[in-house]
Amino acid sequence: MISLKELLHGNQESDFTPEIMENAHFLLIRVNVIRKEWNKPMVVTSGLRTQADQARINPKATKSNHLTGHAIDILDEGLHLTRWLKTEGADLAACLGLYFELGNKDWVHMQDVPPKSGNRWFLP
């Protein structure tokens, strides 16, 4: 199971508002359902981000869902998880209300808020 510590990715709960932490807890519940069904280890490459993290990682994305506890990135070398999410895991992902970013080379971005397009798989 993915832990809160992994989602915090080196940050502390006190770095975030109670609302952001509540969002993060709900995201973890959904992602851990995926993790259980995928039945393989999942490594968090980016989770909750502070403003300083965001400025370092992607300064152009000032409204990133990572800032509000609504997004997580999972290592996906070979894109095996991505393929599973598009096929066998597609119905589960839709039921859980998860959305995924297209175009990543070795990770999958999951978020629990719809993108502007409303598409399950979207371009940033």
Topology:
Blueprint: H1 4-8, H2 18-38, E1 44-46, H3 51-57, E2 71-75, H4 80-86, H5 90-96, E3 99-101, E4 107-111, E5 121-122
Can you describe this structure?
The chain is built from 5 helices and 5 strands; from the N terminus they run ααβαβααβββ. The longest helix is centred in the N-terminal third of the chain and has 21 residues, at 18-38. The protein has one domain (4-122): Muramoyl-pentapeptide Carboxypeptidase, domain 2 (2-Layer Sandwich). It is an alpha+beta fold and 124 residues long. Helix content is 38%, strand content 15%. A 5-stranded mixed beta sheet has the order 1-2-4-3-5.
Brief digest:
With 124 residues, the chain is of the alpha+beta class. The chain has helices spanning 4-8, 18-38, 51-57, 80-86, 90-96; strands spanning 44-46, 71-75, 99-101, 107-111, 121-122. The protein is globular and about 35 Å long.
